[in-house]
Every structure is written in C-alpha cells, then in structure tokens.
Amino acid sequence: MSEVETTEIRSYPMARSCPLRPPGEYEQLREARPVARHLLPSGRPVWLITSHELARRVLADPRISSDRTHPGFPLPYPIEDPEALRGLFRFSQSLIGLDPPEHTARRRLIIPEFTVKRVQSLRPRIQEIVDGRIDDMLAQGSRADLVQALALPVPSLALCELLGVPYADRDFFESRTKVQINHNSSLEERQKANGELMSYLDELVATKEEVPGDDLIGRLIVKNREAGTLEHGELVALAALLLIAGYETTANMIGLGVIGLLENPGQLATLADDPSLASQAVDELLRYFSISDTAGSRVALADIEIGGETIPAGEGVMALSLAGNWDPAAFSEPERLDITRDVRQHLAFGHGPHQCIGQNLAKMELEVTLTTLFRRIPTLRLAVPAEELPYKGDANTYGVYELPVSW
C-alpha cells in the first residue's frame, strides 16, 4: 500500500452515533489499518493511530515532536501565518510544545508541585470546596445544572488557589479558554482571546515576581531564580498552560463521570458498597471517556516505520487515546464500564515524556467530587435522557455544556 494513499474516511473529528461511545470508524480503522493516513479539515495530512500498543510506541518515540509551530503539526484548522501560529501557541511552547532536552529541564522544575505527596496534602481543601458547592446545590432546591453548580467551580477554585489566581477572575479566563478550544472559533477570535489571557497573566506574574507568594506560581518564580531556566515571558506562558489545561479537562470529566455512573447503576452500587474502589473507578471512567484525542498530536521528525506503514518525516501523527482505550487487545470488553478492572495502562493522560504532569491532581479531584456527590445525594438522577444532553462535539476536549440533574 502506498505510503501517500489516503483512507476513505475523510472527516475529523468523526461523528459519534452514540454520545457515550467512540465513533464507529475508530473500530473499523483499528481492525483494518491501525496506522492510517488521513486528511484533516485544514488540509494537512495526519496519520491516525488507533491501536493501544502502537499509540504507546509512537508517544514514546524520540523521533516525533510536540512542536505546534512545526509546519507539519496536525492542526485541525488552517493557520498559514507563522507569526500568528507562534503567538497563538505561545503557551504551549512553555512545556507541552517542547521536546527534550528543553522539555526535560522545564518539567523537572515543575514536577515537585504535582507529586502524590504534594497533591494529597491538598485533599482536605478539595473536600471543603466540594462540600461547599454541594451545600449550595442542596440549599437551592432539588434540581441543578451540575456543570455550573459543581463540575466547573470545583477544579476552577482549586486551580485558582493552587496557582494564586484570584477566583473573582474565573469568568474572564474561562470565557477566553472556551474560545481557544472550540473548533469553530475563527483565527481572529482565537488571537483576541489568547492575547487578552496572556496580557492578564503577564501582569499577574509581574506582580508575583516583585513579591512571590506561597502559591505555585510564586514558588516557581523562586525556584527559577536559582535555576535560571525561564524568562519572564516563559513563566507567563507556563502559567497560561497550567490554567488552561488544569480545569477544563477535569470539569468535563466530572460531568461525564456522573453520567457514566448514573447510566451504569450496577457500577454505582458497587462503588457505594466499597468506597475503596474510588481510585480504580476514576481510572476506568478516564479510560472509558478519554476526552482529549488531540492531546496525542505530534509530527514526525524522521521516517518512522510502524504497524506496517511508513510515516514520512514532516507529516502529522495523532495517537487517538479514545481508540486505544477501547482496544480489546488491551482491555477486555472495552464497551463495558467496569470499575473493578485494572486499567493503569490507559492513555487518557497520554504516554511517554509528555504524559500529563497534573494527573495526580486531576484524579484526586475526580475521586473526591464523585464519591462525595453520590454519598451526599444518593437519589441523584439525570433530569433528561443522557442521549439528549448537549455534548461538546465541537471542542478539543469532550464533555457536556449542561448537565441538568434532580434528586
């Protein structure tokens, strides 16, 4: 088969016939051509990886790059102006858009903030935040939009406190982030939202450089003075990355996690009977929904032979985590939600040098939020059928825009 042949599947992202399951094309590709060349709506070629094993292999390969400004990087939308591209992805060049050794040095600077021990020290405060939001829900009646009442506020408030960002400004950065992750936003809208967010954080970081506080940004400033790793602008970009990546993904997983458990009452009952399964339940929900396929986007720096195909240097690669996490070769009966299974090798947080640095925090927030919600409101139920909910098919990160529930 020619290495420049394109598959018959033409559109990406692919439509789902069921909002709680992967697109049917993922299974077709995995069985027929787990490494398949495709064209994005932007016109750029991309190689879709749908096998769990091959996705892990690609994501750990030093011959692929995370540089979003590379001309072959698989952006879903066209951006031809190099300067616009660099400006739009300034935040990514602080960490996720870098390759070793630059990436290694910067990751080493920040990783102490997200160790298991450090994250567990935050658990009492996360518990207070979750209980406070549920108190407000119960005080306002027997019905709520769980996205606005719980899913967004919990990670948003937690992250604001962690970073030292005023919570009163959450509407500002949440609204700008929504524009940047929406597939339908124009280049001008993305640039405006990005510029406003970066200007806000530039002032915030400058203030903290004068008097570093006991928060993540303040501690990074102090560490960086000793290490000399980051310039001011790079600190601003890193703050933007943590702010953007830290709450939107967790918020979406809270909503989908609630839907997943309510749609599988047997699994919810198992969790209620044995709360020690909470960590496994979170990992299984992460596997089941795998909300960010685009996180596995890379570009080949050399010809790479994998899965019987040759990915030419300069072409894009997408290791689709949702496809890999529903690979029956890795997880038996992947369509079945099973909170007792061992899924520690799932791809929801990626794999390799760019595996999500904040995964310990995200998992802890999910564990506390989901277990507390169902313990305190055991009669919680969806107010509308799951298939009628407004899902985020137009965003980089999958989730729901609204989640009406009652009890």
Automatic annotation (TrEMBL):
<dbReference type="GO" id="GO:0020037">
    <property type="term" value="F:heme binding"/>
</dbReference>
<dbReference type="InterPro" id="IPR017972">
    <property type="entry name" value="Cyt_P450_CS"/>
</dbReference>
<keyword id="KW-0560">Oxidoreductase</keyword>
<dbReference type="GO" id="GO:0016705">
    <property type="term" value="F:oxidoreductase activity, acting on paired donors, with incorporation or reduction of molecular oxygen"/>
</dbReference>
<dbReference type="InterPro" id="IPR036396">
    <property type="entry name" value="Cyt_P450_sf"/>
</dbReference>
<dbReference type="GO" id="GO:0004497">
    <property type="term" value="F:monooxygenase activity"/>
</dbReference>
<keyword id="KW-0503">Monooxygenase</keyword>
<dbReference type="Pfam" id="PF00067">
    <property type="entry name" value="p450"/>
</dbReference>
<protein>
    <submittedName>
        <fullName>Cytochrome P450</fullName>
    </submittedName>
</protein>
<keyword id="KW-0408">Iron</keyword>
<dbReference type="InterPro" id="IPR002397">
    <property type="entry name" value="Cyt_P450_B"/>
</dbReference>
<dbReference type="GO" id="GO:0005506">
    <property type="term" value="F:iron ion binding"/>
</dbReference>
<dbReference type="InterPro" id="IPR001128">
    <property type="entry name" value="Cyt_P450"/>
</dbReference>
<keyword id="KW-0479">Metal-binding</keyword>
<keyword id="KW-0349">Heme</keyword>
<comment type="similarity">
    <text>Belongs to the cytochrome P450 family.</text>
</comment>
